[in-house]
Amino acid sequence: MASKVKGKTAASTGGAKRRGRTRTSRISSKHQVTIPVDVLREAGFVVGDELVFTLKNGQLVIGRNIHPMQALLEEVSGVYAGYNFEAERADAWRD
Rounded distance, CA 4 to CA 10, Å? Predict the structure, then answer.
């Protein structure tokens, strides 16, 4: 009985699209906005993400607030692609 959740079906819990979802939202009296779930999924946002808001050419841009070290690591990702440590080591320690 624990597997039954009121109002949920197997199809709706797996991320299936439901009728009535939109890609719009309104600003509440507390200046809050709910981001539609489909948009959250497309953007790859998850619960706990810290978001940053910027304006570029009059457009509101929402993105993840990334720690500077993580940004650096993402920037240099792929630098060592194809690097063969064993071959480098063997070359460095030739007798």
Answer: 9
How does pLDDT run along the chain (95 residues), one tens digit per residue?
Answer: 455 555 555 454 555 555 667 788 999 999 999 999 889 999 999 888 889 999 999 999 999 888 777 777 777 777 766 777 778 777 877 66
Say if pTM beats, i.e. exceeds, 0.70: no
Letter string b/e over residues 20-41, b meaning 16 or more CB atoms within 10 A of that residue's CB: eeeeeeeeeeeeeeeeeeeeee
Domains in the chain (CATH in brackets) are 23-79 (2.10.260.10)
